[in-house]
Structures are given as C-alpha cells and as structure tokens.
Design goal:
The chain is an alpha/beta fold. 39% of the residues lie in helices and 15% in strands. Keywords: NADP, Oxidoreductase.
C-alpha cells in the first residue's frame, strides 16, 4: 500500500481519496497569496488533495491556486467543511453554496461537518445527504466525531460517513475510535499529525529518523500511512511541503511501529470533542 504520492484509498462509496493531502488551517486568510503559494507548491510537489474549511477563511485562495495549477480539476481532491455557526438543515445548504462560490468550483470532493454540535449535527447531516444525492459533493463525512456521536448518527442516517477526520498522532493513537470506524467502513483522516511540531522533539522520533535516514516528520507521517490513516500535514514552507511528500520510499518495521504506538498519552494539541461546546458556548 501507499507506494507513491498518487496512491489513494477507496472510500465506502467507491470514491478514491489520496493518502496524503495538504492542510491549510491557519493559512493566513488575510493574505490570499500566502495560501495560494502553499497550495500551488503542494500541487507541483505531486499532492493531489487539499483540505480547507469555511472556518479557515481561505477557500478563495485554495480555489485560485487549484485553477492556476494547470492540473485538471478532476485530478485534485478538495475537502472543505461546514462551520459550527452554520449548522442545521437550511443553514448548511446555504453554507455549502457559499463555499462552492468561494472556491469557484462546480462541486466539492468531500464535505465534512467540522465539529459535532449536538443541537444541530443530525439536521446538518440530513442536508449533506441531500447535497450528496444531488451530486454536488462526491463524498460526505464528519470531523472530530467520537464513538457516541457516530452511534447517534448511524442510527438515523441514510448515508454512512465516508471519513472521520480527527486529531491523530503517536501521543493520541485513538485505537478504539479507529477500530470502530474501520468496522463501520469509515476512513480515518489525521489532522495535526505532527502535533504542531511537538513530536519532532520526541527522542524516539529522532532516533528513528537517524535509523532510517529520514526526518522526524517523515517518520511520523509514515506511521500514519502504515496504520491505514490518511494524513494531511499543514505547512506553508516549500521545503517542508516537499519533505512531507517524501514518505513513500521506505517502510517502518513492525517493531518500530509498535514503539511509536507506545508513545500514546491520550494527549491533544487541539480541542477535545467532548468539551468544545462548553468552551465555545454552544451548549443550550
């Protein structure tokens, strides 16, 4: 598996999603050129998947970069997400139209619920099923959903989510959640796979980088792939974008994979899906 940068995983509806993508969170929305440069660099490096969100406020820059790349639109897998403020049935349909307009595209490859806002995510999903049925999106999924959220959704949905995008790295291995998703045919996608760079200082990661003649980032991203998890590292620096793409020419041993697994501390760099509503004042 995952032998080249063009490799992809087949989602539960038959759509192929690249194993590696570029995340553009904190892509300086006030500076569209900054985002465009990162996306164009990634496409030049061979990436064929770009992950954005309405909340990132940089969909316009992503769209301009994809159009300017010279690569046919159907060869670029574009993911965006409905933000928390626009969840609910009618609001989601309007939010999707706005994202489509911001991106300047006719369709979106993957549309996600960004966070499981308890009061709205079921109606949000119903709207996303409508968009999927109408062919406006090639696949729909969720982000930051825990097992309890997925249980509720799966009990009532018509379309099983294609992916669940969550924080995932050696200090947050999410084994139970991944096992659950695998059992339901839901592909796990890793955001913050490098834990905002903190993992690069981990002694074991540095040891393995030396052993394999790779960088620490490449070791961790390769761990993602060998665990069957799609990865979307974020970077705006050309050298890092190229470095992160060079993870297909080597393989970690089973023993080293297990050593990385053992780093788990259930430690997050981002928001906890069980606590974000209280922190953001979203609980009724």
């Amino acid at each position: 598996m995952t032998k080249t940068i063009s490799s992809g995983v087949t989602l539960n509806n038959g759509v192929v999603m690249p194993w590696l993508g570029l995340g553009v969170w904190q892509g300086r929305p006030e500076d569209g050129a900054h985002v465009e440069h990162a996306v164009r660099t990634a496409i030049e490096a061979g990436y064929r998947s770009i992950d954005t969100a309405a909340a990132y406020r940089n969909e316009q820059g992503v769209g301009r970069a994809v159009r300017a790349s010279g690569v046919p639109r159907e060869e670029i897998f574009v993911t965006t997400k409905v933000d928390n403020a626009n969840q609910g049935y009618d609001a989601t349909l309007k939010a999707f139209d706005k994202s489509l307009d911001e991106l300047g595209m006719d369709y979106i490859d993957l549309y996600l619920i960004h966070w499981p806002v308890s009061a709205h995510y079921m109606e949000t999903w119903r709207a996303m099923e409508k968009l999927y049925a109408e062919g406006k999106v090639r696949a729909i999924g969720v982000s930051n959903f825990q097992i309890r959220h997925l249980d509720t959704l799966l009990a009532a949905c018509s379309v099983v989510p294609a992916v669940n995008q969550v924080e995932y790295h050696p200090r947050l291995t999410q084994k139970e959640l991944q096992g659950y998703c695998n059992g339901k045919g839901i592909q796990l996608v890793a955001w913050s796979p490098l834990m905002l760079g903190r993992l690069l200082e981990e002694p074991l990661v540095q040891e393995l980088a030396g052993k394999y003649g790779r960088t620490g980032a490449q070791i961790v991203l390769r761990w993602d792939l060998q665990n069957g998890v799609v990865t979307i590292p974020k970077s705006a620096k050309a050298e890092r974008i190229y470095e992160n793409a060079d993870i297909f020419g080597f393989e970690l041993s089973l023993g080293d994979m297990e050593r990385l697994d053992a780093l788990n501390r259930n430690e997050r760099s981002g928001m906890d899906p069980d606590k974000f509503e209280e922190l953001w004042g979203l609980r009724n």
